[in-house]
C-alpha cells in the first residue's frame, strides 16, 4: 500500500495508479492528492503499451464527444440572442478595460463553468476566478469576485494564518506557515506553444482589474499561488534569461492552443 506502507495492496486507483490496501487508505490518498478516482480517458499511452482495449476506449471517447457536441448544438438557450448579447457585452466591456477576453464555443468545460458578470450600475466586473495551489495539490473556485479587490485580500481566506478557514488552513499549511513575502501569484500567458509555456507574475498589492489589464483571458482568470523557496517548473517570462519581459500589447488572439487542450475535456 502506497498510503500506509503496512498492508498488502488490494486496490489500484484508476486515476493515478496508486496502490491501496483498504477503503480508508483509498479515501486518504484521494484527499492527499485531490484525486477523484475516475480514470483519465486522455492519459498518454505509449505505442508499445497501446492495446485493443486502448483503441476501444479512444473510440468510445470520441463517440461521447460527438454526442456532447450534438447536444450542445441543439440546446436552444445557449444559442439564444440574449446569451449572444451577454457574451458580446462582456467582451466589449473587457476590451474597454484593456483586457482581451476570449469566450470558448458551446460545450467546452470553461464555457459551462464561467459565471463572470458585469454590473452596469457599478461599472465593474464580478469575475469567476480559480485559485490553484500547486504545492498542496489544491484548487478553489471563487464566484462574483469584484474587480476592484486586491489579490492580497482575495488570498487572505486561504493563506492568512489568522483569517483563513481552519480546514483550508490545515490543507494549505505550507502556505500559511510561510511569510507573505515568499508568496508569488502567477498567471499563464495564453496563446503560446506547448513547449514554451510562460507565466506572468502579478502584484498582490494591486487590484484584480489592474493585474488583468493588457492580458489575454480565456473565459476567466486562473491564478497559480506558489512559494519562492519551493521548487516549481513554472517559468516566469523575463526571468528565465532566454527572452525579454512580455509586452502586453503584442499578445496574439489565436485560440488554437486552448481549443486543442480543451476539446477532449468537453464531454
TrEMBL record:
Any GO molecular function: zinc ion binding
Transmembrane segments: none
One example of a Gene Ontology biological process annotation: maturation of LSU-rRNA from tricistronic rRNA transcript (SSU-rRNA, 5.8S rRNA, LSU-rRNA)
Domain of life, source organism: Eukaryota
GO CC terms, sorted: nucleus; pre-snoRNP complex
Region listing for Disordered, in residue ranges: 238-267
Keywords from the UniProt entry: Isopeptide bond, Metal-binding, Phosphoprotein, Ribosome biogenesis, Ubl conjugation, Zinc, Zinc-finger
Residue ranges occupied by any HIT-type domain in the UniProt entry: 1-35
InterPro entries membership: BCD1, BCD1_alpha/beta, Znf_HIT
Biased composition (Low complexity): 242-258
PROSITE patterns: ZF_HIT
Database matches in Pfam families: BCD1, zf-HIT
Subunit: Interacts with FBL, SNU13, NOP58, NUFIP1, RUVBL1, RUVBL2 and TAF9. Interacts (via HIT-type zinc finger) with the RUVBL1/RUVBL2 complex in the presence of ADP.
Function: Required for box C/D snoRNAs accumulation involved in snoRNA processing, snoRNA transport to the nucleolus and ribosome biogenesis.
Similarity comment: family membership: Belongs to the BCD1 family.
Protein name: Box C/D snoRNA protein 1
Gene: Znhit6
Amino acid at each position: 500500500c502506497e498510503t500506509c506502507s503496512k498492508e498488502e495492496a488490494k486496490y489500484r486507483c484508476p486515476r493515478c495508479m496508486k496502490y491501496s490496501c483498504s477503503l480508508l487508505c483509498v479515501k486518504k490518498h484521494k484527499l492527499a492528492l485531490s484525486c477523484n478516482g475516475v480514470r483519465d480517458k486522455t492519459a498518454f499511452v505509449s505505442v508499445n503499451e497501446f492495446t485493443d482495449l486502448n483503441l476501444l476506449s479512444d473510440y468510445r471517447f470520441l463517440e461521447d464527444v460527438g454526442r456532447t457536441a450534438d447536444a450542445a448544438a441543439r440546446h436552444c438557450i445557449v444559442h439564444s440572442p440574449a446569451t449572444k448579447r451577454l457574451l458580446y457585452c462582456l467582451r466589449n466591456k473587457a476590451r474597454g478595460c484593456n483586457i482581451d477576453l476570449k469566450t470558448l464555443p458551446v460545450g467546452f468545460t470553461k464555457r459551462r463553468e464561467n459565471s463572470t458578470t458585469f454590473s452596469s450600475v457599478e461599472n465593474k466586473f464580478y469575475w469567476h476566478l480559480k485559485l490553484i495551489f500547486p504545492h498542496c495539490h489544491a484548487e478553489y473556485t471563487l464566484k462574483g469576485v469584484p474587480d476592484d479587490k486586491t489579490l492580497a485580500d482575495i488570498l487572505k481566506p486561504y493563506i492568512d494564518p489568522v483569517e483563513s478557514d481552519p480546514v483550508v488552513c490545515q490543507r494549505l499549511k505550507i502556505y500559511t506557515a510561510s511569510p507573505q513575502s515568499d508568496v508569488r501569484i502567477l498567471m499563464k500567458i495564453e496563446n503560446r506553444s506547448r513547449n514554451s509555456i510562460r507565466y506572468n507574475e502579478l502584484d498582490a498589492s494591486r487590484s484584480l482589474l489592474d493585474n488583468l489589464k493588457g492580458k489575454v483571458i480565456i473565459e476567466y482568470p486562473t491564478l497559480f499561488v506558489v512559494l519562492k523557496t519551493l521548487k516549481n517548473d513554472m517559468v516566469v517570462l523575463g526571468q528565465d534569461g532566454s527572452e525579454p519581459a512580455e509586452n502586453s500589447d503584442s499578445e496574439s488572439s489565436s485560440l488554437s492552443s486552448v481549443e486543442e487542450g480543451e476539446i477532449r475535456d468537453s464531454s
